[in-house]
Amino acid sequence: MSMHDDILKVLVSEEELKAKVAELGAQISKDYEGRNLVLVSILKGSVVFMADLMRAVSIPCSIDFMVVSSYGGGNTTSTGLVKIIKDLDGDLSGRDVLIVEDILDTGITLSNLVPMLKMRNPNSVKICTILDKPSRRKADIAPDYEGFAVPDEFVVGYGLDYDEKYRNLPYIGVLKPSVYEK
Ligand SMILES: Nc1nc2c(ncn2[C@@H]2O[C@H](COP(=O)(O)O)[C@@H](O)[C@H]2O)c(=O)[nH]1
Ligand SMILES: [Mg+2]
C-alpha cells in the first residue's frame, strides 16, 4: 500500500511549492542583501522547506538547526508544551536570524521561541513559514514571510508528519481521518 492512499486531498501541489519557494528565496535575497543572514531551521518539520529555500536564496548566509517540541507522536492537537530538544550550534549576536518553519498553527511554539532567541543579541529575528493556519492562532504572532494559508485541517507532507510518517510526500495534503482515528 502506498502512503498516497492515506491522503484525502492535495492542498498544495509540488509545482505550487516549487514556484512559491523560488518567490520567497528571491524576496529574502533582496531584503537581506548586505546583511548577516542565518537561516534557523526548526526540525524536523521544516527540513524539506529549509533544503529548498536555502538553495533559492542567492546571497551569502549560514544555516543552523534547532529541535523544538510541541506535539507528541500520534497526536494532532497542541499540548501547549514547548521544549528545546536541540539548541543552535552558533552564536546569534549581531546576526539577522530568519526562522524557517513548516507551519504556524496556534503560534505557541514561535511565540515562546522568538523572545528566547532575541535574548541572544541578534540584529533581528524574523519568521518564514511555508504554511500558515491563521484560524487556529492562540498567540499574537504573524509570519514575516509566508507560503500558503491553509484551512483548519491536519496536513502532512513536505516535511510535515503524522507519527513520523508522510514527511517524504512531495506535496502537502490532508490526511484521511481514518488514519488517526484507528
Ligand atoms: N503535521 C502537522 N504538524 C502540525 C500541524 N499544525 C501544527 N503542526 C506542528 O506543530 C508545530 C507547532 O505549531 P504551533 O504554531 O501550534 O505551536 C508546527 O511547527 C508543526 O510542526 C499540522 O496541521 N500538521
Ligand atoms: Mg514545526
TrEMBL record:
Q: What is its main location?
A: cytoplasm
Annotated ranges, domain Phosphoribosyltransferase: 15-162
What EC designation does it have? Answer: 2.4.2.8
A Gene Ontology BP annotation from the UniProt entry: GMP salvage
Please give the coiled-coil regions recorded for this protein: none
Q: Quick one: which pathway?
A: Purine metabolism; IMP biosynthesis via salvage pathway; IMP from hypoxanthine: step 1/1; Purine metabolism; GMP biosynthesis via salvage pathway; GMP from guanine: step 1/1
Enzyme class, top EC level, equals transferase
Arranged from A to Z, the UniProt key words for this protein are:
Cytoplasm, Glycosyltransferase, Magnesium, Metal-binding, Nucleotide-binding, Purine salvage, Transferase
- Which GO terms fall under molecular function for this chain's record? guanine phosphoribosyltransferase activity; hypoxanthine phosphoribosyltransferase activity; magnesium ion binding; nucleotide binding
InterPro entries found in the cross-reference section = HGPRT (IPR050408), Hxn_phspho_trans (IPR005904), PRTase-like (IPR029057), PRTase_dom (IPR000836)
Q: Of which family is this protein a member?
A: Belongs to the purine/pyrimidine phosphoribosyltransferase family.
Q: What does this protein do?
A: Purine salvage pathway enzyme that catalyzes the transfer of the ribosyl-5-phosphate group from 5-phospho-alpha-D-ribose 1-diphosphate (PRPP) to the N9 position of the 6-oxopurines hypoxanthine and guanine to form the corresponding ribonucleotides IMP (inosine 5'-monophosphate) and GMP (guanosine 5'-monophosphate), with the release of PPi.
The protein's name in its UniProt record: Hypoxanthine phosphoribosyltransferase
Give the originating organism. Faecalibacterium prausnitzii
